[in-house]
Design goal:
about 270 residues, alpha/beta, Rossmann fold, 2 domains, four-stranded mixed sheet, three-stranded antiparallel sheet, 10 strands, about 50% helix, globular
């Protein structure tokens, strides 16, 4: 499942995971269901989130896998001193592909900055350059989903004209320039293969355009989204015959997980 807008958000007092979602996740783990976090967030943010919500992987054994930056995979491993081991070959290959094109992508965005992007959204901004270099890809933040979508189209046109092997991907109000292989669907497919889980036994839950690659059925996953999802995610889930929750954010995730748990509970009652 995705984090921002899916598992995270919707609480009146803080930006976090709802109690209903966390209880449902733990109930799934108790029944042997694997949990993976698949997000555009950095690993340091995810590690802090687990601590803030008193999720103890060493004691509870989950998340069983974490995809950060929509690309870098880690698996929970009780034998590892740091609890999570990197999928080194996967991470190194994709990271190298993206870093190889970083300078050219950075120049392309700079050339669009005054001529197009700020015309559409004068409040758009870029994260610190050193942060982008560290993560290996170019990112722009916008003031609304609408301006982010409009600018993603402009950037995609410029990328096609330049011949750079990248795509503009929108995540809520942000746009990143990513290698076609660096997406959540491919990463989740890799996780399922490594953990020995058939694709048809995977349920992917997300809410934004950058989740579409794991929601649209291309990998054979079942898909679901939450009531607050944007149009791209809703359309992908509906085309794939997936489920849309009645509630938003983590409470919507809890709806989907309770539906998974129902057969287990019925068998126990029988």
């Amino acid at each position: 499942m995705d984090l921002d807008g899916t598992l995270l958000g919707g609480l009146p007092d803080r930006y976090g995971i709802s109690p209903a979602a966390l209880a449902s996740v733990r109930a799934c783990v108790d029944r042997g269901i694997h949990i993976a976090i698949v997000t555009g967030r950095e690993w340091s943010f995810i590690a802090g989130l687990l601590t803030d919500h008193e999720i103890r992987p060493n004691d509870e054994g989950f998340p069983h896998a974490v995809v950060s930056d929509e690309r870098d995979i880690r698996y929970w491993s009780p034998a590892d001193p740091d609890s999570y081991r990197e999928d080194f070959d996967w991470n190194h290959r994709l990271g190298a592909e993206e870093r190889r094109t970083f300078s050219a992508a950075d120049r392309l965005v700079e050339s669009l900055w005054a001529s197009a992007l700020q015309v559409v959204d004068p409040q758009c901004r870029r994260p610190a350059h050193e942060t982008q270099v560290k993560r290996g890809y170019v990112e722009i933040k916008f003031s609304s989903k609408e301006s982010a979508s409009a600018c993603a189209s402009l950037i995609d046109e410029a990328l096609r004209a330049s011949g750079l092997p990248l795509r503009a991907i929108r995540n809520n109000k942000g746009v990143t320039l990513r290698h076609p292989d660096a997406n959540k669907g491919n990463a989740l497919c890799r996780v399922a293969q490594v953990l020995g889980i058939p694709s048809q036994a995977v349920l992917a839950i997300g809410d934004s355009q950058n989740d579409v690659s794991m929601l649209d059925g291309r990998h054979g996953f079942r898909s679901a989204t939450v009531a607050n999802a944007d149009g791209d995610a809703l359309a992908a889930v509906r085309r794939a015959g997936g489920s849309v929750s009645k509630q938003g954010f983590g409470d919507g995730v809890a709806e989907h997980l309770r539906a998974i748990l129902t057969p287990y509970e019925e068998r126990q009652r029988a």
